[in-house]
Amino acid sequence: MKIGIIGATGHVGQAIMKEAINRGDQVTAIVRNAQKAKTLFDDQATILEKDAMALTHNDLSDLDVVVDAFASSTPYEHVDLATRLISFFREDKTTQLFFCDWCFHTDQRRWQHPAGGYAKAVCRRTLAGWNDRAKSRV
């Protein structure tokens, strides 16, 4: 499966990257800093250095799954990027979009950091679901 992860060098992006690489998926890290991605992932992933807001449909069109793990301190940028991604794939019945966000729950420590145990478990279940759906299309 071909998976592109926007924000692959961030906390959530790294957790998803590692899980996808461990599963043997073809992974593209979509990042602002290619050198940081190269340091983190070595030759285990393709690296696309591009600002998330400058991505085009053509940049993402060969992927089975696009994961938005983009981090910004400006909330509207998340909405802007989500809107762009949805517009790219609105009529596409094969490419799946997955949007990540921070989750905090003060009563349960495991939710306090997105790259913690809970987020990793969600990554595993989500990637397993993508693989099952991809196999059913073949």
Describe what this molecule looks like in 3D:
This protein is an alpha/beta fold and 138 residues long. It folds into 2 domains: 26-100, no CATH class; 102-133. The chain contains 5 helices and 5 strands, in the order E-H-E-H-E-H-E-H-E-H. The chain has helices at residues 11-22, 34-41, 57-60, 75-89, 117-137, and strands at 2-6, 26-31, 46-49, 65-68, 96-99. It is globular, with a radius of gyration of 14 Å.
Key terms:
five-stranded parallel sheet, 5 helices, alpha/beta, 2 domains, 138 residues, 43% helix
Question: Short summary of the structure?
Answer:
This protein is an alpha/beta fold and 138 residues long.
Question: Which helices and strands, and how do they pair?
Answer:
Layout: E1 2-6, H1 11-22, E2 26-31, H2 34-41, E3 46-49, H3 57-60, E4 65-68, H4 75-89, E5 96-99, H5 117-137
Parallel strand pairs: 1-2, 1-4, 2-3, 4-5
Helix pairs in contact: 1-5
Unreliable sequence segments: 103-118
**Whole-number count of domains:** 2
Which structural class do you get from the secondary structure elements? Answer: alpha/beta
Distance between the termini: 12 Å
Annotation field: number of helices: 5
Main sheet overview: 5 strands, parallel
Q: What is the approximate shape? A: globular
Order of helices and strands: EHEHEHEHEH
* Cross-sheet strand order for the largest sheet: 3-2-1-4-5
The beta-strand count equals: 5
Q: Give the mean pLDDT.
A: 80
